[in-house]
Amino acid sequence: MTVTHHPRVPGLASFGDYSPLAEAGELVVVAGQFGTDGAGALPADGDPAEQVRGAFANVGRALAHAGLGFADVLRFTTFLVGRETVPVFMETRKEVFAEIYPDGVYPPNTLLLVAGLVEERFVCEIEAVAYRGGRR
Fold it and tell me: Which domains does the chain have, with CATH numbers?
């Protein structure tokens, strides 16, 4: 099986030496995404709800680069800084999921509380694993 790494995805900022997207056969892996614009800026003064929305939007950009969408996601992993971010994440995810999963069926998600992310200004990071082999 050939593994293809995509070191650049249009619209995604880079925060280190890694590829934001990799493909291996039918599997597509999206590295953890923050809620930044393509230049790495946080909109809305870093508002946690906007970071969550932006992180999902960036996961969507990465998936689209691979020719996929949210219907192809097998699982999400979410990293949050601070327990106080959990209610904001839950409420915002509910709003985002209503748009991207209108049937109300959601992929698995592991939610982890962490001491910090790569930059202190980030409170949310979301990664995804998707499958190219079929749709729901």
Answer: 3-131 (3.30.1330.40)
pTM: 0.95
Specify the length of the chain in residues. 136
Give the pLDDT confidence of 76-126 residue by residue, as tens digits.
Answer: 999 999 999 999 999 999 999 999 999 999 999 999 999 999 999 999 999
Are the C-beta atoms of 77 and 49 separated by less than 8 Å?
no
Sheet holding 27-33, edge to edge: 3-6, 21-24, 27-33, 124-131, 73-81, 109-114
Residue 42 CB coordination number (10 Å): 18
The amino acid occupying position 84 is E
